[in-house]
Specification:
single chain; 3 strands; 3-stranded parallel sheet; alpha/beta; 112 residues; 3 helices
C-alpha cells in the first residue's frame, strides 16, 4: 500500500493517450493492427485514444477519484474523459460515448 502504483498507471495513461504522438500528430491509439490509419479517415482513420481500466468493484470509485484528481482540467495536462461504468440502464450509452469520444473508462471485473 502507498507505493504509487495507481499514480504510475495514471501517468502512463496520460502519456500514452494524450501526449505520446509521432511526427504526424498521431498517438499510438490511432494505429490498428500496427498500420498507420488511412489519410481520408473512415473505418481505418484516426480514432479517439481510449483505455479500459479493470479493477475490483471495491476500488472503482477510488480510481475515478484519483483520475479526476491527477488529470483535472485545472492542471497543466490535457484532460481525459474519465468514466465509471456501472450496471444500469445507461451503461450501453456510456460505452458508446466512450468509443466515440475516447478517454478512460473504469470497470469492475464482473461487469467486464
Amino acid at each position: 500500500m502507498g507505493l504509487g502504483k495507481t499514480l504510475s498507471v495514471i501517468a502512463f495513461l496520460h502519456t500514452a493517450l494524450a501526449r505520446a504522438r509521432n511526427s504526424e500528430g498521431l498517438c499510438y491509439a490511432h494505429y490498428r493492427g500496427g498500420r498507420p490509419p488511412a489519410a481520408r479517415g473512415g473505418p481505418d482513420g484516426p480514432r479517439p485514444p481510449r483505455a479500459l481500466v479493470l479493477v475490483p468493484k471495491s476500488v472503482c470509485s477510488q480510481w475515478i477519484a484519483e483520475l479526476r484528481l491527477w488529470l483535472s482540467p485545472s492542471a497543466d495536462v490535457e484532460p481525459l474523459h474519465c468514466l465509471l461504468l456501472d450496471t444500469g440502464k445507461g451503461a450501453l450509452a456510456q460505452l458508446r460515448r466512450w468509443r466515440s469520444e475516447g478517454g478512460v473508462v473504469v470497470m469492475s471485473h464482473n461487469l467486464f
